[in-house]
Amino acid sequence: MKKFLAKLAVTTLAITMFLGIGASVNTVQAAAKPAKVSSLKVVERDDDELTLKWTKVSGATGYQLYRYDTSTGKWKKVKTTSKNRYEVENLKSATKYKFKVRAYTKSNGKTTFGTFSATLTTYTEPAEVENLKASNKTTTSVKLTWDKVPRATKYQVYMYDTAKGKYVRQTTVSGTSATISGLSSGTTYKFKVRAYLLSDSGKNKYYGDFSDVRKATTKTASSASATSTTSTYIGTAKAKSIALADAGVTESKVHDLEVERDKEKGVVVYEVSFDYNGYEYDYTINATSGKILEKEVERD
């Protein structure tokens, strides 16, 4: 009888251990598939980066962000992150990009991926307009020029309206110059320009940063019709040499050198401007005495 009971106890223990192991095995399950990511969008935009954000997926361990590579025709993983926001850097300005993202879960060493979000097609902004200049000033107009912005569609030219206390758009052009007319003589105006990119659909515009502000003064009616002979003036060559000497540079080292004769507050002057070593120099020189009346040096 004792042997029988002992045998029964051993058998019962063996069955119990077997059932326990079986129960443990049954608890090892694959990770649940996360839901599809939604609402992928741009929340911050610049000319060389895009900040993307999407709705959090409940229970997700993290996310994988992909960008379409036009050179290979394939999707390339950009980032694996635990957050639902990521800043994509080192992009080209005024360029179209496509993105998609998916969530994933990890459980017991197994990774399970969700369905990719809908593809987001978006664009970076154009670069900032550089080197805005004013020239060919008359009593009623000013010509503006600037450097070409890569891949920009068009440019918008703004002028400060003192009556309204804000900048007002004057014109939109495809090229890198514009003449603003209908101005008052002997008046100083402020201008700025920005580029924009039109989407492929033609429905959206992406604007770049404005250029630095450029001041320009129209000629006075008296200076435009002055009958004084130029023999009493130092001449453009002398005015140029005075400005260059003051700046401590030679003509061969500067760029965009311009000299114009004008009249300010009844005094005939030469306006000399040029770029040197990343700075823009503007001089106003008395046309009779050669005295420097005004000097401005700004980072270009």
If you had to describe this structure to a student in words, what would you say it looks like?
By secondary structure, the protein is mainly β. Helices cover 14% and strands 43% of the residues. It has helices spanning 2-26, 221-224, 236-247; strands at residues 41-45, 50-53, 62-69, 74-81, 85-88, 96-107, 110-113, 120-123, 133-135, 142-145, 154-161, 166-173, 177-180, 188-198, 205-207, 214-217, 255-264, 267-276, 279-286, 292-299. Strands 3, 4, 6, 7 and 8 form a five-stranded antiparallel β-sheet that branches. Strands 11, 12, 14, 15 and 16 form a five-stranded antiparallel β-sheet that branches. A four-stranded antiparallel β-sheet has the order 17-18-19-20. The chain is elongated. The N and C termini lie far apart (106 Å).
Range of strand content: 35-45%
- Mean residue pLDDT: 88
Structural class: mainly beta
- Report how far apart the termini are: 106 Å
Computed CA radius of gyration, to the nearest angstrom: 35 Å
Pick out the low-confidence regions.
Answer: 13-19, 21-26
How many individual helices?
Answer: 3
Q: Helical amount among residues, as a percent range?
A: 10-25%
How many strands, which pairing sense, and closed or not: the largest β-sheet?
Answer: 5 strands, antiparallel
General form: elongated
Listing every helix as H and every strand as E from the N terminus to the C terminus, the arrangement reads HEEEEEEEEEEEEEEEEHHEEEE
The beta-strand count equals 20
